[in-house]
């Protein structure tokens, strides 16, 4: 027996009345200052969310556009000629591919997903995924602008490269890519846009733009969710509390790693944020922030989960975390 429209309407009215009663009861019990505090927190949340989202959207768009170009202009034979099938060589070449594509941690995910479909070896794709947000030309210039052409730039570049290649080599022992990638990337997904052999340049560009739109909306929803989570953490967890316990050589590194995840700052501008911590935090802790943040933050993890299986994402997060932590501790105790 089907529920009639009037019955559904009456249920909605009952629910609205119940919610109204709950609001009235809550307003009579809770102090007035509570609602003022909630309103202030909501304003902060909206400001932080928009800041993270607006900062990341152009780079997500750039990454999805690059993904569309890869789909229409690159075939599997070209990919096999460009990237070696040997694990070590593939991991290293994948990491240095990051110097070609000016994409941050948001844009690199859809681009890597497309490269996997084109036959990019798993080790090369993982290395590219982790290295590109640091090794790309825009981030190198922004880091140099903040810290100069010196130690911070050199060590950020070097340690990021080492971590990316190491994680790529770890994944190279995986027998089948289908054990790591989600089913849609293992061959079950069917694109809505198909490239034909005789397509003109104009037609290929048109199809690349259509793929860009599909990829942008597909990955953009996870960017929104990740930005909301990051904004919520920044709104309701006082950063001053984290900074107050970050004075020691170990705690300072742990706090900066935690801040890298919570703040979820785009790698193109994170150097200027890190520069603000130079007076209170050690060289090693700031370096770990600059290395780990572009590889793992809330919004990037949300997008990783759409490309890789959960176990693979655990490795992609845990190995860079441990290596960034070790690097920060080494600099705090033995170098700086």
Structure description:
It is a single chain. This protein has 336 residues and is mostly helical. The protein has one domain. 74% of the residues lie in helices and 0% in strands. The chain contains 15 helices and no strands. The protein has helices spanning 5-29, 32-73, 76-82, 87-96, 108-117, 122-135, 137-147, 151-172, 201-236, 239-244, 251-263, 270-275, 283-295, 298-304, 310-335. The chain starts with a helix and ends with a helix.
Cα distance spanning the termini: 75 Å
Tell me the structural class: mainly alpha
Radius of gyration: 23 Å
- Total number of distinct structural domains: 1
Helical proportion, percent range = over 70%
> What is the element string, with H for helices and E for strands?
HHHHHHHHHHHHHHH
Strand residue percentage: under 5%
Taken from the alpha-carbon principal axes, the silhouette is: globular
Mean pLDDT: 81
Number of strands: 0
Helical stretch count? 15
Low-confidence stretches: none
| Biggest sheet record | none
Q: Helices, strands, pairings?
A:
Layout: H1 5-29, H2 32-73, H3 76-82, H4 87-96, H5 108-117, H6 122-135, H7 137-147, H8 151-172, H9 201-236, H10 239-244, H11 251-263, H12 270-275, H13 283-295, H14 298-304, H15 310-335
Give the gist of this structure.
This protein is mainly alpha-helical and 336 residues long. It is 74% helix and 0% strand.
Defining traits:
single chain; 336 residues; mainly alpha; 0% strand
């Amino acid at each position: 027996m089907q529920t009639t429209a009037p019955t559904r309407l009456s249920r909605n009215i009952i629910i609205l009345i119940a919610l109204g009663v709950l609001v009235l009861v809550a307003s009579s019990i809770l102090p007035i200052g509570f609602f003022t505090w909630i309103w202030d927190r909501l304003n902060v949340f909206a400001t932080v969310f928009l800041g993270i989202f607006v900062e990341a959207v152009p780079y997500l768009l750039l990454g999805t556009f690059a993904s569309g170009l890869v789909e229409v202009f690159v075939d599997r034979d070209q990919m096999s000629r460009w990237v070696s099938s040997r694990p070590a060589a593939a991991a290293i070449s994948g990491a240095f591919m990051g110097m070609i594509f000016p994409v941050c941690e948001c844009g690199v995910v859809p681009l890597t997903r497309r490269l996997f479909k084109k036959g990019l070896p798993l080790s090369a794709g993982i290395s590219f995924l982790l290295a590109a947000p640091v090794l790309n030309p825009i981030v190198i210039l922004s880091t140099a602008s903040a810290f100069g052409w010196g130690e911070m730039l050199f060590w950020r570049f070097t340690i990021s490269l080492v971590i990316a290649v190491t994680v790529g080599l770890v994944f190279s022992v995986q027998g089948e890519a289908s054990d790591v990638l989600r089913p849609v990337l293992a061959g079950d997904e069917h694109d809505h846009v198909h490239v034909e052999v005789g397509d003109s340049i104009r037609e290929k560009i048109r199809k690349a733009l259509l793929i860009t739109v599909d990829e942008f909306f597909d990955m953009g929803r996870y960017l929104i969710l990740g930005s909301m989570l990051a904004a919520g953490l920044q709104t309701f967890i006082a950063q001053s509390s984290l900074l107050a316990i970050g004075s020691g050589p170990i705690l300072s590194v742990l706090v900066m790693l935690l801040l890298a995840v919570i703040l979820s700052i785009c790698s193109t501008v994170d150097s200027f944020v890190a520069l603000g911590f130079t007076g209170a935090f050690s060289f090693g802790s700031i370096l770990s922030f600059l290395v780990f943040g572009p590889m793992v933050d809330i919004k990037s993890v949300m997008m990783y989960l759409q490309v890789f299986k959960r176990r693979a994402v655990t490795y992609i997060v845990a190995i860079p975390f441990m290596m960034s932590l070790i690097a920060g501790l080494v600099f705090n105790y033995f170098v700086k």
